[in-house]
Design brief:
Ubiquitin-like (UB roll); alpha/beta
Length: 407
């Protein structure tokens, strides 16, 4: 089974995490304004979109692992919606430890923030504007930083660090082993040591502040967070978003998960034509909709699609995947002349892979371990050039893999 990009959905209880998952995946997870409605993680398959190579090649494709709609390729990713996070979750408050452990598999996190400011620290309803969304960002990032710190130090931190020398390789190996299971690689650990100014320092001499700084840095590198300003259609939301952008300098995506969910459901029920992420939709037959439904659709069009260009759901997934985690799209094929697999399917598969990934690693992680073991070389289907195992993949590459067992 090939590795698929996994995005974790986080936030306070009742902020709209499960609605976001349902909108992105057309799932039916239970939604409620009661905190901790989500206990076990909800999972689903969503899609990111990119221009398909079929138009560039002037071929008609028939995808197997993805979809192509009018020259736009929709590629599957995994979403995990975990229980809401409250202050001191890293100490076990609420469903803290369980929540955090559910995030281990995530490559990137989407923080669903209630931009109306109508939820207190525990996710209970208060008056709109009573809560500052910026405070939600600060507390949640601190909770995850503290979780990383606790995983690092555990109960035997002093005993653990006594066995480490200042030699970089030993430090990296030891920390890598310590953080195993968190989907963190050695390159990220090296980068975090440099950024924290701790390279060459024996961890046994780290102060508590330095340990926290390293924990924060490794979290930012290994599990970056994208802020999703949800419930953007409310009256107070536009002003709150402007205020939040003054305080928070990272990227923020304006979003209405509920609007996306309505549009996708109405499309599924053949009441409207809507492509996820689009800035418009078409009503198929007005007579099939009552006045309340028509009014709701009009408000979605005017207040969300016209104002922000989309509901923000697919935009968030795309930004997280292609901008924040540097994913590119690669198409493996068997026939370099027809761009097909061995059954004649044209451009059957599209895989997301991190930019700069080497060809052999791509084969191992995305296609099959056995193929990687028998790997000989690759062929660029566009140029017909031979590619070595260390070739760094580029976006829109179409690659044939040649192995010792290839015919």
């Amino acid at each position: 089974m090939h590795m698929v990009l996994t995005i974790g959905i986080i936030g306070k209880p009742s902020s709209g995490k499960t609605t976001f998952l349902n909108a992105a995946c057309l799932t039916h997870a239970k939604v409620s304004e009661i905190p901790f409605t989500t206990i076990d993680p909800n999972v689903g398959v969503a899609y990111v979109k990119t221009n398909c190579v079929c138009k560039e090649l002037n071929v008609t494709d028939n995808p197997k692992n993805s979809m192509c709609i009018d020259g736009v390729r929709f590629i599957p990713i995994n979403l995990i919606d975990v229980a809401g996070l409250v202050p001191d979750a890293h100490k076990g408050k609420g469903l803290g430890n369980k929540f955090l452990n559910d995030l281990i598999k995530a490559d990137i996190l989407l923080h669903i923030v209630d931009i109306t400011g109508s939820l207190d620290k525990s996710g209970k309803l208060v008056s709109m504007g009573e809560n500052d969304p910026y405070e939600d960002i600060l507390f949640l990032e601190n909770e995850i930083d503290m979780w990383f710190k606790e995983i690092l130090e555990r109960q035997d931190w002093r005993k653990f660090t006594k066995t480490i020398t200042t030699e970089r390789r030993k430090v990296v190996e030891s920390l890598y082993e310590r953080l195993s299971g968190l989907k963190i690689n050695k390159r990220q650990i090296i980068q975090s040591l440099r950024t924290s100014n701790l390279e060459g320092h024996n961890p046994s001499n780290w102060t508590d502040g330095e340990l926290l700084e390293f924990s924060k840095t490794i979290r930012e590198i290994a599990k970056p967070i994208l802020i999703i300003a949800n419930k953007i259609d409310k009256e107070i939301s536009e002003n709150n978003l402007k205020e939040l952008k003054k305080k928070y300098k990272g990227p923020i995506i304006a979003c209405s998960a509920l609007a996306e969910h309505f549009l996708r459901k109405y499309h599924e029920d053949q009441m409207i034509n809507y492509v996820p992420g689009a800035n418009n939709f078409e009503i198929i037959e007005e007579n099939n909709l009552n006045l309340d439904e028509l009014d709701m659709l009009k408000k979605i069009k005017v207040k969300i699609l016209n104002e922000y260009g989309s509901t923000g759901v697919l935009e968030a997934l795309n930004y997280a995947s292609f901008t924040m985690t540097d994913q590119i799209c690669v198409y493996p094929v068997s026939d370099i002349n027809t761009y097909s697999d061995n059954k004649g399917n044209v451009l059957p598969d599209a895989f997301l892979v991190k930019k700069g990934t080497q060809l052999r690693d791509f084969v191992r992680e995305k296609i099959h371990t056995e193929l990687a073991e028998n790997f000989m070389f690759g062929i660029d289907a566009k140029t017909k050039k031979r590619l070595g195992e260390n070739y760094k993949l580029k976006d829109r590459d179409i690659i044939k893999i040649v192995t010792t067992r290839s015919k």
